[in-house]
Amino acid sequence: MEKKTSLFRRALLILLVLAAVLLAVIFALWHNEISTLLSIEKLNTSDDAHEDGNVYQMTVSGGYYFDEYLSRGGASTDKELIDFITGKITKNLIPMTISESAISCSSFTAASAEGDRLFARNYDFSRTNTCIVYTNPGGGRHASVSTIDLQFLGIAEEGDADGLSERVLMLAAPYVPLDGVNDAGVACGIYMTYQGAEAVATDQQTERPDLTSTTMLRLILDYAGSVEEAVELVSGYDLHDSAKTSFHYMVADATGRSAVLEWVAATDSTDNDGSARERKVTWSDESNCQTVTNYILAEGYYDGEPEESMTGLDRYEYLTGVLEAAGGTVADEAAAMELLSDVGRRSWKPKKDSLTVHSVVYNLTDRTAVWVGNEHYGEADYTYYLAVK
């Protein structure tokens, strides 16, 4: 009897040791990922009546391997990006996905009455789940807060991210920002452009390393200390737009300087070779403000083109007109949010299943933000006050 008890105790001890070793290995491999998963919090639940998706927030631990992604030359396709993220984050044990969709959107920069620099943005799409993402990778990289669309990570709009499998997918969130601001007061956003006869994606093919659409925004948020630095950083990479469509980008900083980055070749109807495109930068001028929608700003791009091809021109002209009439200023973040509401999808030429998923006003001076979900303007339960951590 004593012998059997001794054997049992020995077997139990071996199992406990193996379990401890296994836990130690898991922690060593995934301690940052585990910490990130534990940080996920649901801020708001979906509401069919208002077509609201769920809203989450998360704080990413560690550097999410982005420096390694850059050092290996980036990625020229969504598949290459997925392969890298899956290998690093889940060690190839759990498949991951990244996709992007047709989006509208409007943005502007302006000064507040007190002189703070503001970057305002509407994200126009359809019903979806979103996540506010905090990162602080260290190693000389900037901390930031950004917003992502969880559909980009394969989480269906009619579902949620409450299960473990969905939350594992959220670990790729740093790679798909839509807009954000960093601790240097640099903000950026992405906007669809519908270039070419059928929205042809930019696909540069030089000897430079590669970036996809949203990883270019992550590059800016992590490494840029000014608009000039952002423009210089981007110049070192080939751009490969995701989702077989085209985008342009706005960048601004706390000095009041801003720029719109576009990749173009020829005019709209003939811009059908994504590999032939070159970057064009439209800098802000003495008007103290800048506007971007889906309308291309590069000089001559719409020469000889019909007005119906100029998607977003109406919102661009409206926002630019209001801001220039006010000398490029708005009273404060609330006034900037009100201007965003003017061009929200429920207000501006409403279309079925077209929503403004989120509206955000980043204060580049204070490194803070006011974030409103799905056009719930003025409603405290859907308004969040953010700050770079």
Task: Give a brief outline of the structure.
Helix content is 27%, strand content 25%.
Break the fold down into its secondary structure elements and pairings.
Elements: H1 2-39, E1 41-44, E2 55-60, H2 66-71, H3 78-89, E3 106-112, E4 117-125, E5 130-135, E6 144-149, H4 164-169, E7 179-182, E8 187-192, E9 210-212, H5 213-223, H6 227-234, E10 238-240, E11 247-252, E12 258-264, E13 278-283, E14 290-292, H7 313-325, E15 329-330, H8 333-342, E16 355-363, E17 368-373, E18 383-387
Parallel strand pairs: 2-5, 3-15, 9-10
Antiparallel strand pairs: 1-2, 3-4, 3-14, 4-16, 5-6, 6-7, 7-8, 8-11, 11-12, 12-13, 16-17, 17-18
Helix pairs in contact: 5-6
CATH fold name of the largest domain: Penicillin V Acylase, Chain A
Helix-and-strand structural type? alpha+beta
What is the C-alpha radius of gyration, as a whole number of Å?
23 Å
Low-confidence stretches: none
Instruction: Give the overall silhouette.
Output: globular
Number of strands: 18
Q: Care to describe what's here?
A:
- By secondary structure, this protein is an alpha+beta fold.
- The protein has helices at 2-39, 66-71, 78-89, 164-169, 213-223, 227-234, 313-325, 333-342; strands spanning 41-44, 55-60, 106-112, 117-125, 130-135, 144-149, 179-182, 187-192, 210-212, 238-240, 247-252, 258-264, 278-283, 290-292, 329-330, 355-363, 368-373, 383-387.
- The chain has a nine-stranded mixed β-sheet.
- α5 (213-223) packs across α6 (227-234).
- The chain is globular and about 95 Å long.
- The protein starts with a helix and ends with a strand.
- The mean pLDDT is 92.
